[in-house]
Elongation factor 4
Amino acid sequence: DRQKHIRNFSIVAHIDHGKSTIADRILELTHTVAERDMTNQLLDTMPLERERGITIKLNAVELHYHAKDGETYIFHLIDTPGHVDFSYEVSRSLAACEGAVLVVDAAQGVQAQTLANVYLALDNDLEIVPVINKIDLPSAQPDEVKKEIEDMIGIDASNAVLTSGKTGVGIPELLERIVHDIPAPTGDVEAPLKALIFDSKYDNYRGAVLSVRLFDGTVKVGDQIQLMSTGKTYEVTEVGVMSPDAQPRPMLMAGDVGYLAASIKTVQDTRVGDTVTSATHPVAKPLEGYRQIQPMVYSGMYPVENAKYGELREALEKLQLNDAALEFTPETSQALGFGFRCGFLGLLHMDVVQERLEREYDLDLIMTAPSVDYHVITTDGKTHVVDNPADMPDPTTIKEIQEPYVKAEIMVLSDFIGAVMELCQRKRGDYVTMDYLDKYRVSIVYEMPLSEIIYDFFDELKSSTKGYASLDYDLVGYRASDLVKMDILINGEPVDALSFIVHKDFAYQQGRDITAQLKTTIPRQQFEIPIQAAIGNKIIARTTVKAYRKNVLAKCYGGDITRKRKLLEKQKAGKKRMKAVGNVEIPQEAFMAVLRTN
Ligand code: GTP
């Protein structure tokens, strides 16, 4: 029976604890990739992932393992991202698995995302195989980490596998443990097709390519399938597995993880979390989908060239297929023209989306400063949801502004308690609790405004704790705050896309900081450009960008032609993320100036 030989599992961990490295070692040991094709972080297929050394997208591969019992097992390994911004990808891949390999760094121990991810795995009833990685490090403390796993997570870690992704130690044992500890799938091959879409990707030739986990039944080329959320039917044109490149197969069966294509051209019809069934023998009830993910941060996205608006819409639709957490609706800005309001899970997610759109779809984009969504209650008793500061109602009609609050859990060594509390207090946090996890480590809980967390909180936390702190947060609700909208005027004209919302206590300082920032980011032009910050009609800060005419080539005395060319190219490249507002050119950095003044 084929299913008895299948193991579907994910690797979950806190960021940088070594998931991708362990996945690489597993691919090597199972000879899934020829040695000459082996590169580090093989499953991180996006150039962006390799450059940054992080996993952004989940990836599923099929591998074949010859176990000690003499049998060959089919492993479906789903690699997942570790950063807090991408935890929705983790929950999706877990729904396709029976087990999870939990990787914990032997020197760092259990961290915030270790807990968050392991809870997701336990919610999905997955069998957990604990692994303590990086045991080659001199600072490794495997016994302490075992105890932490038992105390903090409540699973037996006495037989945790000790590995080093770097040297390969322990990986053969891990493979055996996957065979023995993780249950085989138990779907009914004879039943009608029931498959979960856990990812999808747009391909110009094949249409939407769906990553699927078959729970029951089979699917092959020529079958008529139905997507249950829309009821639309399609004929299957290709099925296969990733190993690690796409390899077409005659059919997929219950228990399998693979892909299918069915000339699905309307991007909106493929929804991650949806169920695929047979059009001729549909199942009565779809699989439980995923919970809808709530964006945390919103930003306006505009093409540098207005004519590319249609292209941007198409690119967003295609990217959304591959990134279920991305949301967008059209918006217009007086300053920037036609664009989209986009919702993201955090700043890293926002950054990644902008880069993917620019690289994969060849667009030049301007993004406005990120904002959270506010609930504004006006004097007529109505509540307005405002995710764009430019849409703030007239201040004289506002009764109350409420902002989203999160419960933030920070884990840190006890030496840094003072530094963390000082930081949280400064970011308007309300202290909730503090618990000692063991002799050295504490968990500190604060409730704080989301807007304070999304900017540079994580970076500041890291730098004030020598990199030791980890963070996880969840939305807890909306609370009234003393907030005001700050307008920025450039050359006497308010630029709607530069408006932002700020706490009254920080407004004056912020106004001064941001005008100073803008002065350094807006390039000088042939005329003087006044920059002002205003609350309502009141100007609270002002600077001026002096006029002058700059000839960049004057620097290149000596006529070094290659240097001259480089300088020109640099200028040209620098021009891409620039938008003319009235007769002033505003660069991308200016829109993000608010991030740097916090
Ligand atoms: P994300 O994909 O971003 O979530 O990170 P990850 O958990 O996949 O971590 P990754 O495999 O990229 O490893 C993080 C860093 O730790 C890299 O610099 C690795 O070279 C290093 N590393 C991984 N495993 C080991 C190990 O066993 N020993 C040592 N010394 N370093 C390791």
Notes: DSSP finds 15 helices and 33 strands in the chain. Residues 13, 15-21, 53-55, 81-82, 133-134, 136-137, 164-166 surround guanosine-5'-triphosphate (CB under 6 Å). The two ends are 60 Å apart (CA to CA). Confidence is low (pLDDT under 50) at residues 553-560.
